[in-house]
Amino acid sequence: FPVDMREKKEEDVQLIQKYLENYYNFKKDGESSFVWKNNSPITKKIKEMQEFLGLEVTGKLDSNTLDLIQKPRCGFPDVAG
Amino acid sequence: FSTFAGEPKWAKQVLTYRILNYTPDLHPADVDAAIKKAFNVWSSVTPLKFVKKDRDHADIMISFAVKGHNDFIPFDGPGGSIAHAYAPGKGFGGDAHFDEDETWTKSTEGTNLFYVALHEFGHSLGLFHSKDPEALMYPVYRKFDPSVFPLHQDDTNGIQHLYGRSPNTYNDPRESAEIKEPAEPKEPALPDICSPDLTFDAVTTFRGEIMFFKDKHFWRKHPSVRAVDFNLISAFWPRLPSGVDAAYEVPEKDETVLFKGNEFWVVRGDTILPGYPQKIYVLGFSKDVTKIDAAFYNRNKGKIYYFIADKFWSYNKRSQSMDRKPRQIRDAFPGINGKIDAVFQHKNFFYFFHGRKQLEFDPGKKRVTRVLKTNFWFPC
Predict the structure, then answer these.
(1) Pairing assessment for the beta strands B104-105 and B111-112 based on DSSP bridges
(2) What is the ipTM of this complex?
(3) What average pLDDT does the structure give for chain B?
(4) Beta-strand pair B81-85/B104-105
């Protein structure tokens, strides 16, 4: 990626990680932000989030997912902690 | 819809709430109104009732706070997390917290307090987040649309799964096919809004709505909105007795006058104005009048009409004088005979309630134009 794209991507990753920690009981395990495998914990959590919120389940940080997680919301988690 | 693990819910039907502090974004009266309105929505579809407390512990404690605020979930500044609430239980249970870093409004701009409170109180009552994007209990905030009843059928199904239906709630049978059987009511049967035998103690306009009084309750209905609110009189006016005899509103003064026996009270919103009750004799009635059956304020003429048995007295607000003697109701209102239960004015018609009938009277034509059921105003 060009540098500015990398920075943007890093911001998005932090955003989703924080969202998943807050609302989907995600525990960060030091996984590299950029190297996501299909069955990695963060991909699974993104899929779970997308399924719950009625988004297309891709496991990826697509624009619909990013848009939705930036909207104001209830602070209560979507999955039981 | 879904509920919390273990399905916690309140074991009682009358719950208390207390507003611990107020956001500077709104007038305190607007906060009170938004909170009350949110509870009223949940009341309208369940047997639950909510009573405001001003001190001590309440089942649902409501507060505005920023960042860390001594619970398990800190707020995060503007946007993001805007509020949260806890499932029914002791301690934090049922409590609702609102992020003071949001801009709270009573309009569709910013963050509408009523709409967010309604969602949070869903948690306070035991509803978890819904996966249905149309449901109120979906976790993402949507712009509030005041023209639409805020509960989706999914929310209604969820709350009625926990508490059963309100005996006074209208449910469209096409929409409620999946509703489970309601829980057995734990209190004596409440008046049935759609019963052909329904009668009212008093009816009045009230800030654009119509209030129908019956024993210790009243219904609120906006003429152009389908939903009906059902409340305890004591939840609005704690010092007022049940079984109101008559009521009328003077809209230009934003005052409503309520009668019981030989006493009356004047209220503005949910506040009883100081100096009441007063005896009805200060209004000019003779001592043989012990109660008023019905009353209404004729906005066109600036006159208040008081109905007692088969007669009525009129009070001219402009000249501030009461009739010396009562007149026969049938002489001034042909077709209206005998004692009436309640009366109110809507647009250019007077609506007289007489037992199981409601008579629409056109004062211009001086005749009854329609005979209606008492529950004509409700979606029965």
Answers:
(1) parallel
(2) 0.89
(3) 88
(4) unpaired
- Residue B120 at interface with chain A, using a CB cutoff of 8 Å: yes
Neighbours of B168 (CB within 10 A): 20
Q: What are all long-range contacts of A24-29, with beta carbons under 8 Å and residues at least 24 apart?
A: A24/A48, A24/A49, A24/A52, A24/A77, A24/A78, A24/A79, A25/A77, A25/A79, A25/A80, A25/A81
Highest mean predicted confidence (pLDDT) among A51-55, B167-171, B314-318, B324-328: A51-55
Whether B81 has its CB under 8 Å from any CB of chain A: the answer is: yes
| Chain A residue numbers touching B80 (CB-CB < 8 A) | 72-73, 75
Taking the C-alpha atoms of B321, B322, B327 and B332 in order, what is their torsion angle to the nearest 10 degrees?
50
The active-site residue out of B100, B120, B134, B175 is B120
Distance CA B94, CA B87 (A): 5
Pairing verdict, β B246-250 and B202-206: unpaired
Q: Which of B76, B123, B132 sits opposite A76 (nearest CB)?
A: B123
The one-letter code for the residue type at B297 is Y
Phi, psi of B201 (to 5 degrees): -80, -40
Nearest to B83 among A23, A74, A78 (CB): A74
Both tokens of B213, joined, read 């009084």
Angle, vertex CA B201, rays to CA B229 and CA B32, nearest 5: 35
Tell me which residue has tokens 């109101």: B244
Are residues B1 and B138 in contact, defined by beta-carbon separation less than 8 angstroms? no
Confidence (pLDDT) at B32: 95
The residue type of B116 is: V
Contact A74/B131, CB-based, under 8 Å? Answer: no
Q: Write the burial class of residue B92 (CB in 10 Å: 0-12 exposed, 13-18 middle, 19+ buried).
A: middle
Tell me what pLDDT residue B111 has: 95
At B14-37, the pLDDT tens digits run 899 999 999 999 999 999 999 999
Q: Which two tokens stand for residue B234?
A: 């004591």
- Please tell me the predicted confidence (pLDDT) of residue B292: 95
Q: Quote the pLDDT of residue B344.
A: 96
Q: Which amino acid is at B323?
A: D
Is residue B150 reached through a cis peptide bond, with omega within 30 degrees of 0 on the bond before it?
Answer: no
- Tell me whether residues B139 and A54 touch, CB distance under 8 A: no
Instruction: Single out the residue of B42, B82, B44 nearest to residue B60, CA to CA.
Output: B42
Q: H or E segment at B83?
A: strand B81-85
Beta bridge partners of B254: none
